Amino acid sequence: MRAVLARAAVLAGAFTAGAVAARAATLPHLRTLTADLQRSRERILATREEERRRLRHDLHDGLGPTLASLAMSLDAARITLACEPERTDPLLAEVRNRLATAVGEIRDLAHGLRPPALDDLGLVAAIESFAEGCGGRVDVRFDGEPAGLPAAVEVAAYRIAQEALTNVRLHAPDSTAMVRLSRDSELHLMVADTGPGLPDAARNGGQPRPRHGLASMKEWAAEVGGNCVIASRNGGGTVVTVRLPVAAAETAAGYHRPSTGKGGR
């Protein structure tokens, strides 16, 4: 009996030691993942705040003074109409030209907030329209129903597909590519090409030369709670695999949507 108990104690000690060693080996990996996640969040926050600052600058220092100047010009035209009607037409023509410029600035600001192709064409057709200008052959297909996707998910998917296809055009112009989308509780996006793939360093487990576009794709996915993996595939070519949660984006959209009921304003 003592021998059995001693053997059990030895086994328990070995198991405990193994568990401690496994946990100790896992901790550095967890610390690395936590640090990477923190850096990614910091980049997302910095990018978002920079975009907000740019938008505020464009509205406050660009569009705002333009509209104020137009109001003053209209007042001058009104006074001129009462005193010297013959001089009104040139003044109104100038106001008309400046107003057209202001409309163009507003359109540019709106386009920066959300790609207009998404509203004009929808996600699939917008990707197809962009793919037409990438050269080579790009096959786009959505396995499922694209209607009803949250706006944030649509924007993230479109921008990631756009960046991936731009990389194909720049780095593998003679290759063919395919874009596949499917939807369940998540939106799945894959962009694959037959080009040379990632640099050799990345294929062998090293760190590829940093590219702003690759980091942006991962950050766009992270903004909606998803992830983006970019890798070379067997036989050549690069594959971008993206997972974008739909339910979380729908919840966030509902939370931030203002009330339209009788008590809303």
From TrEMBL:
Major enzyme class:
transferase
Enzyme Commission number(s): 2.7.13.3
Tell me one GO molecular function of this protein. protein dimerization activity
Ranges for region Disordered: 194-213
Source domain of life is: Bacteria
Cleaved signal peptide residues: 1-21
In its UniProt entry, what is this protein called?
histidine kinase
